[in-house]
Design brief:
This protein is an alpha/beta fold. It is built from eleven helices and 15 strands. Belongs to the zinc-containing alcohol dehydrogenase family.
Length: 308
């Protein structure tokens, strides 16, 4: 997401004019419409940032995250939620349990991506999971995979510092990768060795050509590769060998119907998102600049929060 902010593009979504960013948010309700029944003034809520049309074929089939007319916070040309007030549909506002903070409520958004990926890949108690990428989405996917019962989760990244965090969050093993395409074969062997068993599911939270090559080669025959990251729009991949091994490729785009589960996972303690919130800033000009500079530096920063 930081790369998207720096380059003003994420996949096919391109910023063409000034816009408000922000899509991970929670807050306190100050006003409701007359017909609203599920929440009330004073309630603390997490906001699911997408507003689907609820009329198209995909919405009616339950795939509202794929709605072609989706209005999603901070997705051009829709403004985001980095503001003092936002207006949002009541059915996309989810009341926080008493033991869940506003910060944890905001973390339902990235956690939803990991949860949806695990649902798409049917992760369960017998599923050995490899995660490529230990950025924020890779780390929440690690938490989700364990919450879904995976007995072994291996995570790989080019950053030893991020892998240290992953280990602290419960990764069973970590592998440092290079950026060189020439290392794919040897790294596949290292990943398989780290797993100590067949890799049933690989979740690519990077989305680069190299990471997808690695995913397709590392995953066992009959396994599943789930593409979450949107690093490269186009890739040249060894699809024929993967098809000959019946490795399924699954796409993930945002999420659907995940917020209630995410709140339950956080409230019950099965997922702890607090360690991912590494920095906090106020909502003023200086703090906003400092916050984005902190994110841009990387290093120890994972999730940077604004407290309004």
């Amino acid at each position: 997401m930081l790369a998207a902010v720096q380059h003003l593009q994420c996949g096919d979504f391109i910023v063409k004019e000034p816009m408000v960013i922000g899509h991970e948010c929670a807050g306190t309700i100050e006003e409701v419409g007359k017909a609203v029944k599920n929440v009330a003034v004073g309630d603390r809520v997490a906001l699911e940032p997408g507003i689907a049309c609820n009329k198209c074929k995909l919405c009616k089939q339950g795939f509202y995250n794929l709605c072609p007319d989706m209005e999603f916070f901070a997705t051009p040309p829709v403004h985001g939620s980095l503001a003092n007030h936002v207006i949002h549909p009541a059915d996309m506002c989810f009341k926080l349990p008493e033991n869940v903070s506003l910060e944890e409520g905001a973390m339902c958004e990235p956690l939803s991506v990991g949860v949806h990926a695990c649902q798409r890949a049917t992760v369960g108690p017998t599923t050995k999971v490899l995660i490529l990428g230990a950025g924020p989405i890779g780390l929440v996917t690690l938490l989700a995979a364990h919450a879904f019962g995976s007995p072994t989760v291996v995570i790989a990244d080019i950053s030893p510092e991020r892998l240290k965090v992953a280990k602290e969050l419960g990764a069973n093993a970590t592998v440092v990768l290079s950026t060189s395409d020439n290392e794919v074969e040897s790294e596949v062997l290292a990943l398989q060795k780290a797993m100590g068993a067949d890799i049933d599911v690989t979740i690519d939270c990077v989305g680069f050509t190299k990471s997808m090559k690695t995913a397709l080669k590392a995953t066992r025959a009959g396994g599943r590769v789930c593409l979450v990251g949107m690093g490269h729009n186009e890739m040249t991949l060894p699809l024929t060998p993967a098809a000959a091994r019946e490795v399924d490729i699954l796409g993930v785009f945002r999420y659907r119907n995940t917020y209630p589960l995410c709140l339950d996972l956080i409230s019950s303690g099965r997922v702890n998102v607090k360690p991912l919130i590494t920095h906090r800033f106020g909502f003023n000009q200086k703090d906003v600049v400092d916050a984005f500079e902190t994110s841009a530096k990387g290093g120890s920063s994972i999730k940077v929060m604004f407290n309004l």
